[in-house]
């Protein structure tokens, strides 16, 4: 009798972790919307996206009588980073040493460079403004890019050279 109780206790303790059910995320219910409502909402979203387009904003700024707003694009975080970079550079040059750059800073710098190149490439992209002109725009303004599949190299090291018998 005692032996079976000990086995049951061991089995209960050996599992260790208790079951935690998955959290259910709330989802918007759009079952009451008809196809016409969905289409109207999609057209409105396209129209709003077109109004946010940089080309339309520049045209609005150029032809409006409102005073031109000049904003400094540098925020507190980037200003602090540039100040730290300048301090680091001055220290390295005055002490004639190179300081190791932590990995997270290198990655942040790379991300900053990538975002800069993305901003420069977006200059020539005008966006889809057919929602404003009344034209029939495509359903998907930004088509998704297909991922390139890498082929596995099935050759083994010794298969390149065959030994004649």
SSE map:
Blueprint: H1 2-15, H2 35-51, H3 54-63, H4 76-95, H5 103-121, H6 130-133
Please give a quick description of this structure.
Helix content is about 50%, strand content about 0%. It has helices at about 1-15, 35-50, 55-65, 75-95, 105-120, 130-135.
Q: Can you walk me through this structure?
A:
This protein is mostly helical and 165 residues long. Among the domains are: 33-65; 77-128, no CATH class. Helix content is 51%, strand content 0%. The chain has six helices and no strands. It has helices at residues 2-15, 35-51, 54-63, 76-95, 103-121, 130-133. The relative contact order is 0.08. The model has no long low-confidence stretch (mean pLDDT 76).
| Silhouette | extended
Whole-number radius of gyration?
A: 30 Å
Summarize the biggest pleated sheet: none
Provide the helix percentage.
40-55%
User: Can you write the helix and strand succession as a string?
Assistant: HHHHHH
> Mean pLDDT, as a whole number?
76
Total of DSSP H or I helical runs spanning 4+ residues = 6
Distance between the termini: 74 Å
Low-pLDDT runs: none
Oligomer: single chain
DSSP summary, beta strand count: 0
Structural class: mainly alpha
**Percent in strands:** under 5%
Region (Disordered): 1-30, 59-86, 129-165
Biased composition (Basic residues): 1-16, 143-155
Biased composition (Basic and acidic residues): 68-86, 156-165
Protein name: Neuroguidin, EIF4E binding protein
